[in-house]
């Protein structure tokens, strides 16, 4: 289980626990009950879950860095070097010259081998 899931579950449990404690203490107005329970659980989690929150933020930062590195590698793989571009251009030029020597026209139905 990741740190983010654990942290979120503990936050929910803190909220539900404070909600139950306030209900048992006699606070029965639904809106006030939810607002006070949310405030109490936030304050408790601010101090009690500090280490877990720090671990979660480190984990998220590492994932973001890994994703950024993968994206940079993909972009780098998509970019042709000058030598690669020249090789592709030379291959296209030599193919065009051989087609002009044989008289073949690209896209000509007479030269279609699948006809």
Number of domains: 1
In DSSP terms (H or I, runs of 4 or more residues), the helix count works out at 4
- Major beta sheet, specifics? none
Q: What ranges have pLDDT less than 50 throughout 5 or more consecutive residues?
A: none
Strand content: under 5%
Order of helices and strands: HHHH
Percentage of residues in helical conformation? over 70%
How would the global form be characterised?
rod-shaped
- Helix-strand makeup class: mainly alpha
What is the strand tally?
A: 0
Distance between the termini: 59 Å
Mean pLDDT score: 84
Radius of gyration, rounded? Answer: 33 Å
What does this structure look like?
It is a single chain. The protein is mainly alpha-helical. The protein has one domain (3-102). It is 79% helix and 0% strand. It is built from four helices and no strands. The longest helix is centred in the middle third of the chain and has 29 residues, at 50-78. The chain is rod-shaped and about 90 Å long.
Secondary structure blueprint with pairings:
Layout: H1 3-24, H2 30-48, H3 50-78, H4 82-102
Q: Which properties best describe this structure?
A:
79% helix; mainly alpha; 115 residues; rod-shaped; 0% strand; 4 helices
